[in-house]
Design goal:
It is built from 24 helices and 24 strands. The strands form 7 sheets. The protein has a 7-stranded mixed sheet with strand order 4-10-11-17-14-13-12, with helices on both faces. Helix 6 packs across helix 11. The longest helix is centred in the first third of the chain and has 20 residues. It is flat. The structure holds adenosine-5'-triphosphate.
């Protein structure tokens, strides 16, 4: 079959496939749905498990320097005071004062507008003041009832000349929404009303712990998994006999009361995160231990961690590790970009932060972040809990012991100058150096933080293709296929008996199915023509299908192995089949 150029798929087609084939459903659909919450169906939950399993393997199990954690979702409320979430974890929120009274994230108003039919309508009328005026007096009444000019058509006369010159749909909405004689309004992208000034809105979900509804019993659903890792840092380090550099990884649910959950599962109110906190020695400790800190250049070999790495090398190392993982799991390098936050975008404590951004159908957006967070988190928990988060590093103490007083003084002078250059006080620097000379420090941390649901969405978007096929007779057909990486695909192998009514053939196929099912998730399908069965598997991303046919029984015992992406089939013996599938699926 010949393949024609495939059209770029829209998110709508993917959403409909995901519902139809049991990947993702709207939560509480029977009650009209619940914004920001999603349910993963039979195939979706398999896929999510595969993503988590692959992350856990690469980040935790396959490494000797990372331990796992599964902490509670509701933690002591003091955690969120210490982490800063209670005071600063908020988004700017505005409310429509017009007809619809909708709440929206103020920084997303223009994105929401760009996706709206109101924007499409206004764009189609740009420059045609007469048409805009007619629309305001007619269709505008239902399309944008909150719009000032719709409610006050007499105002059209005053702005008629201005309307002729507007070439941008955003400016047109502002002009139509701004009441006569007032400063430019922030318009509602839904009804055209005026939005309130943005106010900070804390994103944490509150709950009450215990039977008494008293403010003292308020607790929060965690907005990220990371804080439990910091809170358990000492317990994990001591019980697992680790020392920095080492990490703690965790996968689990997080909750954010997002003002405007949107773009399908990209931004939801309940989601899962895969977070690693990788604890490293401060650069000053590396300097004392190794005599220098490795400088990061374009040619630094980042494949194997080295003793002289400071935060810069470790941070870049994790950026590279995460990129390798993404590519290995089916997201090609060209599908995402690395965005290095500029100094003025960084949180005050962060040394660097890289967002890996994926080209979603609705724009290039953050998929995951890798931040170098200094010792901020552990220091805050030490301060708020009164419990030490320091580690005692015997080799460091011994290294300092060998230094002369002049060497120590020179080190102190240089360190104080470095700290002051970064806006810290000499007093703080000296206190840090005193502890360091005793072999004690609070570890710094590199945080690769990623969302399971966003990852699933990126993988689904990347995998989705509608192929236009033309067969030998010139008949055209559309094949919908998900090119998911075998490790991520919910079903690894579809097994089919060519016919149902030949017991020997049927039982042999069943035997093969049972054998394969012990190794990975397989699907048995005995209904319909073989071509239809292949298509059903293509649509859900099953990378391989095995068909047992008459030749299997009557000729050489071989089965047909069909590849989803090439649609090629090969005949292979049952023994070779298992080995080959193991190589292709388990790697
Ligand atoms: P955004 O800027 O998109 O709100 P963020 O910078 O607040 O994201 P982080 O706090 O760094 O995100 O969270 C780490 C990861 O968790 C994100 O990269 C993303 O994959 C995931 N994540 C965060 N918020 C959500 C959400 N509301 N829905 C789904 N995934 C999320």
């Amino acid at each position: 079959m010949e393949k024609k150029e495939a059209p770029k798929s829209s998110l709508d087609a993917l959403v409909s496939l995901c519902k139809r084939r049991g990947f993702i459903f709207q939560s509480s659909e029977i009650y009209g749905g619940f914004a920001g919450f999603w349910d993963y169906g039979p195939l979706g939950c398999e896929m999510k498990r595969n993503i988590k399993e692959s992350w856990w393997r690469a980040t935790v199990r396959d490494r000797e320097d990372v331990e796992g954690l599964d902490a509670s979702i509701i933690m002591h409320p003091a955690t969120w005071k210490a982490s800063g979430h209670l005071d600063t974890f908020s988004d700017p929120m505005s409310m429509c004062k017009g007809n619809c009274r909708k709440l929206m994230r103020a920084d997303q108003i223009w994105d929401i507008y760009e996706d709206s039919t109101l924007c499409a309508t206004l764009t189609s009328m740009l420059g045609d003041a007469g048409k805009i005026a007619t629309w305001c007096k007619t269709k505008g009444k239902s399309a944008a009832p909150g719009l000032y000019t719709v409610q006050h058509p007499e105002h059209l006369e005053a702005i008629f000349e201005t309307l002729k010159g507007i070439t941008d749909a955003k400016q047109l909405l502002i002009t139509l929404a701004t009441p006569a004689g007032e400063a430019e309004a922030l318009p509602c992208p839904n009804c055209g009303g005026v939005m309130t000034e943005p106010r900070p809105f804390n994103l944490m979900f509150k709950t009450i712990v215990g039977p008494i509804e008293d403010p003292s019993n308020v607790a929060y659903l965690r907005p990220e998994t990371a804080q439990a890792i910091f809170a358990e840092f000492s317990n994990v380090m001591v019980s697992s006999r680790q020392m920095p550099p080492f990490g703690i990884g965790q996968i689990g649910k997080s909750f954010r009361n997002e003002v405007t959950p949107r773009n399908y599962i990209f931004r939801s109110r309940e989601f899962e995160q895969m977070e690693l906190e990788f604890f490293i020695k401060p650069d000053e400790a590396i300097e004392l231990l190794e005599g220098h800190v490795a400088t990061l250049t374009d040619t630094t070999d980042l494949s194997v961690p080295q003793a002289d790495w400071g935060w810069e090398c470790w941070h870049k190392y994790w950026v590279e590790q995460r990129k390798l993982w993404l590519v290995k799991n089916g997201l090609p390098q060209e599908s995402f970009v690395e965005y290095w936050q500029k100094p003025d975008e960084l949180a005050h404590y962060a040394r660097a932060c890289v967002d890996i951004e994926y080209r979603f159908p609705f724009g290039v957006q953050e998929l995951e972040g890798i931040a170098a967070r200094s010792d901020f988190d552990l220091s805050r928990h030490q301060e708020h809990s009164g419990k030490s988060m320091e580690v005692f590093d015997e080799p460091l103490k011994l290294a300092v012991k060998k230094m002369s007083d002049e060497e120590k003084a020179a080190f102190r002078q240089k360190t104080v100058a470095d700290w002051e250059a970064r806006g810290k006080s000499a007093e703080a620097a000296n206190a840090f150096i005193d502890r360091l000379f005793e072999g004690r420090y609070i570890p710094h941390v590199i945080e690769p933080s990623s969302g399971v649901d966003r990852m699933a969405l990126a993988m689904l978007c990347n995998a989705y293709e509608e192929q236009h096929l033309v067969d030998e007779k010139g008949k055209e057909d559309i094949r919908t296929v998900l090119h998911l990486a075998p490790a991520i695909a919910p079903i690894k192998v579809g097994v089919f008996p060519l016919v149902k009514n030949k017991p020997e053939l049927y039982n042999l196929a069943r035997e093969i199915f049972k054998k394969l099912q012990r190794r990975y998730n397989c699907f048995w399908d005995e209904s319909g023509a073989i071509g239809r069965r292949y298509r059903r598997q293509d649509e859900v991303g099953t990378p391989f299908c095995v068909t047992v046919d008459f030749d299997t029984l009557e000729k050489d015992g071989t089965v047909t192995l069909r590849d989803r992406d090439t649609m090629q089939q090969e005949r292979i013996s049952v023994e070779d089949l298992i080995k080959k599938l193991d190589d292709l699926i388990l790697g």
